[in-house]
Design goal:
44% of the residues lie in helices and 6% in strands. The protein has 16 helices and 10 strands. The strands form 5 sheets. A two-stranded antiparallel ribbon has the order 1-2. The longest helix is centred in the N-terminal third of the chain and has 22 residues, at 4-25. The model is unreliable at 1-9 (pLDDT under 50). It binds alpha-D-glucopyranose. Alpha-D-glucopyranose binds next to helix 2.
Length: 418
């Protein structure tokens, strides 16, 4: 087991490497679609466009290196807002999607400047994190509120159920494209099988309108990661000074506990079109990031999953699927198109899990997680994802979100116990 001191060395070595990565993945300019932009490409080769949840994590990583860049990243996201309040999963600042790719994207028209779908709505959380590190720009904290209110109003109007939980109409809206959680309801239509194009066509014909898709019997789900992001975004709005936001966060968390929590399995599950999907993926642990999660639930997630050998405690942190699941694969699967999020570790999840450990008083374990994550990045580079059994890096070779390891290390080091 690592000590707090050894975890500390991770942050020192990581700072310069993360700064180099983010600087070289940064892009800015004046595209054909309007206002000037500046954002971090998730990977300059594989993903040159702006992806919503990558951008939020990049902004948090930037806030440890250069808060002005972090603010620019988030301002760029808000600049992509449609007049109705929607902000897309992917934004094409540099011009329309190539013709050959347009069919596989969630677009209504090839010339659209963003996809018509969503990704975990983390913007208000990232905004609050960046505002906390922006003493040089005090106006930033409140500057985004009008646009963030419109964004939240769109999500509520278009996606919320009666209990306030948000629905998704495709698995990629959860950020976890081919997660085994949705294997059963999707079958041959799962991402990225050819049947996925049929699902896409079904949704496109309905204007990617969740209400129409549900009414016509299409795939839909209440996803724990998306709703964690939703509650976290309301906690973020409260930190930005929005009246009533803390109450909204509490309501979303209550509804998640009522509807998605499974007492026997001690984890959150998604609800598909036919009911609960009892598959253990890291999305079920994501609520650990929420300040308002009941401590009893935090403790169960930590004891029975995060720290349980053979489930999520493997030699390298944190697998995207429990190693106990029949679908768990530690390495790449799928050819020629990869099937993502079926076992390998993406570092998005470290940031979510870390806060739960800290809040549960597991400071040593949190520093161990952050330290092992830092070591992995220093050994393998900023890869897109890693084999949780050997640590081998896979996918993209300059993956921006992996710079979140720096924020994790600093957060774990800076955490003060009473
Ligand atoms: C993949 C991931 C998605 C991510 C995107 C860009 O599609 O599944 O979560 O946003 O790559 O990194």
């Amino acid at each position: 087991m690592r000590t707090a001191e050894s975890a500390g060395t991770g942050a020192g070595g990581l700072h310069d490497a993360a700064a180099r990565l983010l600087r070289s993945n940064w892009t800015e300019g004046h595209g054909p679609i309007g206002p000037p932009y500046g954002y971090t490409r998730p990977d300059p080769v594989k993903f040159p466009d702006q992806f919503l949840w990558d951008s939020c994590l990049c902004a948090v990583a930037w806030s440890r290196i250069d808060p002005a860049r972090a603010r620019r990243e988030l301002r760029t996201l808000l600049a992509a807002q449609r007049p109705d309040g929607h902000i897309g999963h992917t934004i094409f600042w540099r011009g329309p999607v190539r013709f050959s790719r347009a069919f596989g994207y969630n677009l209504l028209d090839r010339r659209d400047h963003s996809t018509a779908t969503i990704q975990p709505p983390l913007i208000a959380w990232a905004w609050a994190e960046v505002a906390d590190r922006s003493p040089d720009d005090p106006g930033f904290r409140r500057e985004g509120l009008p646009a963030l209110r419109r964004y939240h109003a769109w999500l509520e109007r278009e996606r919320a159920d009666a209990d306030g939980l948000l629905g998704i109409l495709q698995p990629d809206e959860s950020g976890l494209d081919a997660t085994p959680a949705y294997d059963a309801p999707l079958g041959w239509r799962a991402h990225p099988y050819p049947g996925f194009l049929a699902l896409l066509r079904f949704n496109r014909r309905r204007g990617f309108s969740y209400r129409h898709v549900v009414a016509d019997g299409g795939f839909h789900a209440i996803d724990p990661l998306v709703n964690t992001a939703w509650a976290l975004a309301w906690e973020g709005m409260a930190r930005l000074g929005e009246p009533g936001a803390a109450g909204r966060a509490a309501e979303v968390i209550d509804a998640m506990v009522l509807r998605l929590w499974h007492e026997e399995d001690g984890i959150f599950h998604p609800i598909g079109p036919e009911g609960r999907l009892r598959v253990s993926t890291w999305a079920g642990l994501a609520p650990l990031i929420l300040a308002g999660l009941p401590p009893r639930i935090t403790a169960r997630l930590v004891d029975e999953h995060v720290l349980r050998e053979g489930r999520y405690r493997l030699p390298f942190p944190v697998p995207s699927v429990s190693a106990e699941e029949a679908s768990f694969r530690p390495r790449d699967t799928g050819w020629p198109i990869r099937r993502y999020w079926r076992g390998p570790s993406w570092l998005f999840s470290t940031r979510f899990v870390l806060d739960g450990l800290l809040r549960d008083g597991r400071v040593v374990e949190a520093r161990d997680l952050a330290g092992r994550t830092a070591d992995l990045v220093l050994r393998e580079g900023f890869r897109e994802y890693y084999d949780p059994t050997t640590g081998a890096g896979m996918g993209g070779r300059a993956f921006s979100v992996s710079a979140i390891a720096l924020d994790c290390a600093l957060r774990a080091e800076g955490f003060v116990t009473d």
